[in-house]
Amino acid sequence: MLGGKAAVLTQVTLAMCVPAAIAAFLIGQPLLSPAHLGTILGQPGVDTAVVGSSLYLAAIGLLGRLYWLRVYPERILSHMSVPLTLLGLLEREPSHGYDLKRDYDAYFGRGKPLPFGQVYATLGRLARDGMVEPQDAEPGAGPDRKRYAITSIGVTEVEAWLAEPAEAEPHLQTVLFAKVVLALMLGRSAEGYLDIQRAAHLQRMRELTEIKRKGSLVDVLLADHGLFHLEADLRWIDMTSARLNALAEMVRGA
Hints:
The structure is a single chain. By secondary structure, this protein is mainly alpha-helical. It folds into three domains: 2-77, no CATH class; 80-156, Winged helix-like DNA-binding domain superfamily/Winged helix DNA-binding domain (Arc Repressor Mutant, subunit A), CATH 1.10.10.10; 164-254. It has ten helices and three strands, in the order αααβααββααααα. Helix 3 (82-92) crosses helix 6, helix 4 crosses helix 5 and helix 8 (190-214) runs antiparallel to helix 9 (217-242). It is flat, with a radius of gyration of 27 Å. The model is unreliable at 1-6 and 66-80 (pLDDT under 50).
């Protein structure tokens, strides 16, 4: 099935790129020097150049498609919660970029520390959007010692994010954990959030169960895959709910 999809995608890409290469050749003719104005399709070497250009465009298109479908979600979308997590950390108290990185890595970035460059780039975007504001830098301190404070707009954004359940899908634990820890840090109801998330998971499990009831064998296997992951998440939610008091003491005492 995967090979068939790849073949179809390749054929579609080539079907689009070949006419594009020919059109570029014909349109570009008036822009060439007089020595090349008489060049036409069918002359030696011209057909090869057009086909080569088509294949080049097809390769670029396929690579772009691969980046959009695979690399972009894994490398870019996986960091979409970083700005909100940093906002949550700032709601505790104004902090320097260095302190934010330290706390982020300690709670959320184990095995994958947050680069300093990403911290300051994110703070810059948050300041641009009015969610944080830089305060006076400490005397003699470098740019990395500038202190940032959250604004009322930023607080509203954090509140909305914490109240919204994450999409019920596998590999969700990092977002779940970040929201639980931040809720405890900020004195909000982590238990209430876990209840909302549990309800979202159960709803998704009901949908997958219905797919199993009506679908083909392939649908059943795919639904089972999702259900097993969601069941593991539910067990994690229940275990975390039972340990919230201990986790709160550790987080607030840090």
